[in-house]
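ingest -> validate -> predict -> emit
validate: passed (alphabet ok, no gaps, 86 aa)
predict: started
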Amino acid sequence: MRFKGFTDEWEERKLGDIAPLRGGFAFKSSKFRNTGVPIVRISNILFSGEVGGDFAYYDEQDKDDKYILPDKSAVLAMSGATTGKE
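emit:
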């Protein structure tokens, strides 16, 4: 299957070579706040694939570049994202 208008030869590449990949971080729920930096959790990945719902918040971190998602980032759930959702 090809994208409409794509006529170039296929080139096999590893995803990590064209997009940065990094694992998640287990924020401590005991430190969640009502305001601050929103945390994307599995429960925030909606059945539609969008990110939304009720967020938990965390205090801003000194070195938060490990956690902040740049605009247009893709979030991949390794497990549980659609468990029990209709």
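The beta strands are 37-39, 56-58.
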